[in-house]
Specification:
4-stranded antiparallel β-sheet, alpha+beta, 12 strands
Length: 400
């Protein structure tokens, strides 16, 4: 449940006719159309990024120059697209491709040299000497998701390696990046203080194994996260100076999950304060800018559309706990933005649709900037769209 991969993990059933009608009324699109869009985003768009020789996904496709991006650690996160489809349609080919993507990234992007104490860290695509806690979190999530579905013991071995890196990060004073050339941990520079990733990873690990030590690790990262919260409720998780839309969804969901598991209200209060601050900066079209500084001025006005969808997942999660209407209303606005950013005829940017590699994908930036569509964006969009459709369709009143 903590990984928020499919609505079934939340105990949501497929809505009845009344629920489906409610989805159409609220979102302006039918439940069936949402399912079609999500399926096509994987079977039509994402699968064209899959290379049969590499058994891995290109990170993106750039439409204006017809260029496929590199293979990188994004395969850990992008593999979840395939896991979603496996859950929905029980398509064995989908889980096989998810495994292939995971193993490619494990073999190519993970430090697994037995002599190194930082074994289990995942490398940055730009600087191969830097290992990131955030990317290691992606790896751990996908690893545990595959274990839960396939029960292959090898995934518990991989998870233990990722845990080793995250544990070393905690011992170093809750750091987020390790430089293998300098033998040095840091939390400054080009670095995300993504404390929500280890929280969710460890809660899932605890759920899988029942071992209390993993719950203790989750709580420790949550306690650390509380120390980073500004008095206004925001988390400026890049150098303590900048809020970033990519460092929002996991932190909210991680804190709420900790509350649900431990009953400690301080985690829920923190999540509420953060979500309330975030909602203040939501645009009328449902999106958020990428970056805001500590003066609360927008310093990066572009939008990362996948971040918007990821945030809406956590707002739905918070609404489920608090029943506060503002979180669901914000999520609904974000949903309409997410739908608009799909490369389809009625989307905001119906461009290059005659290119078979474009249609059904989601644009990576808005404004379009570099005309890329990426698999790590689609994983947030389809999780979010499927979740909110089932959530709205399952609300007792039939309305939000």
């Amino acid at each position: 449940m903590y990984l928020a991969i499919t609505p079934r993990e939340w105990g949501l059933k497929i809505p009845d006719d009344k629920g489906m009608n409610s989805v159409k009324k609220v979102l302006g699109i039918s439940y069936q159309e949402i399912q079609k869009r999500c399926k096509n985003a994987v079977y039509e768009f994402l699968d064209r990024l899959y290379d049969e020789k590499e058994n891995a996904l290109h990170h993106f496709y750039r439409a204006d120059v017809k260029h496929f991006g590199e293979f990188d650690s994004g395969n850990f996160l992008m593999a979840i697209n395939y896991i979603i489809m496996y859950d929905c349609y029980q398509d064995i080919k989908m889980i096989e491709k998810a495994e292939n993507c995971f193993k490619w990234a494990y073999n190519k992007c993970t430090e697994i040299q037995p002599m190194f104490t930082w074994q289990g860290g995942v490398r940055d695509g730009f600087k191969s000497t830097e290992l990131y806690l955030k990317y290691t979190g992606d790896a751990m999530w996908t690893c545990l998701a595959l274990y839960e579905r396939l029960k292959k013991e090898e995934y518990l071995f991989y998870a233990k390696q990722f845990h080793n890196f995250v544990k070393q990060a905690r011992k170093a004073g809750f750091k987020y990046k390790y430089n293998t050339d300098l033998y040095q941990w840091s939390d400054r520079g080009f670095c995300w203080r993504a404390f929500g990733y280890p929280i969710i990873a460890y809660l899932e690990y605890f759920n899988v194994t029942g071992e209390e030590k993993y719950l203790e690790h989750a709580i420790a990262w949550g306690e650390h996260g509380l120390t980073l919260q500004d008095k206004n409720g925001a988390f400026y998780l890049i150098d303590g100076e900048f809020w970033n839309s990519d460092l929002t969804a996991t932190e909210i969901r991680g804190l709420v999950s900790l509350y649900k598991v431990t009953g400690m209200k301080k985690f829920l209060r923190s999540a509420i304060r953060y979500a309330d601050w975030v909602i203040k900066y939501q645009r009328e079209d449902g999106a958020w800018p990428v970056g805001i500084d500590t003066d609360n001025e927008i310093c990066a006005p572009n939008v990362g559309p996948g971040d918007v969808s990821n945030i809406l997942i956590s707002l739905v999660y918070l609404h489920d706990v608090t029943k506060e209407r503002r979180y669901l209303e914000s999520a609904i606005k974000a949903t309409k933005y997410s739908l608009a950013m799909q490369a389809v005829e009625d989307g905001r940017y119906p461009l290059f649709l005659d290119d078979r590699n474009v249609k059904w994908g989601f644009w990576s930036w808005e404004p379009l900037y570099d005309y890329t569509l990426s698999g790590d964006q689609s994983v947030h969009h389809i999780r979010a769209l499927m979740l909110i459709a089932d959530y709205l369709g399952n609300l007792d009143s039939g309305r939000y």
